[in-house]
Amino acid sequence: MAKKESLLINRLKSVRYAYNGALFLFKTEASIKVQVAFAILVTVAGFYFKISNTEWILQVICIGLVLSLEGINTAVEYMADFIHPDHHTSIGRIKDIAAGAVFMAATSAFIVALIIYLPRLIDLL
Q: Binding-site residues for a divalent metal cation, please?
């Protein structure tokens, strides 16, 4: 009988698997690279404009939500392609719905960014 690993060892392994998944996502998905670029842009803007703590919280939540949903969307696409590699209407609909979730989160994040930064940008003019 194999010795059971400690809770700490199992958690560390889980973090490593999650890190590897995030790294794979960043290396292979063009859309996540664009979203990370936007995340960096608004983060730099946040420091430049000295946004409030509440605005930082909203911004971080939006960034995390969009990136997380993009990861889930990618996982759904990989799973759908694994289950049914050929074109199938239902698989296509599943993939469209997953992409739609990312679109809704990204649209919401864009609106939050407009609310935070548009008045500041207008003041610069």
A: 29, 77
- Could you report the per-residue pLDDT of 61-114, keeping only the tens digit for each? 999 999 999 999 999 999 999 999 999 999 999 999 999 999 999 999 999 999
Q: Which residue among 70, 73, 102, 105 is the active-site one?
A: 70
Residue 90 lies in a domain: yes
- How far is residue 26's CA from residue 112's CA, in Å, rounded to a whole number? 24
Q: How far apart are CA 96 and CA 27, in angstroms?
A: 22
Annotated binding site for ATP: 17, 29, 77, 95-96
Question: Is-catalytic flag, 70?
Answer: yes
Q: Which two tokens stand for residue 56?
A: 């930082």
pLDDT tens-place string over residues 28-49: 999 999 999 999 999 999 999 9
We report the CATH number of the domain holding residue 26 as 1.10.287.3610
**Alpha carbon distance 71, 83 (integer Å):** 18
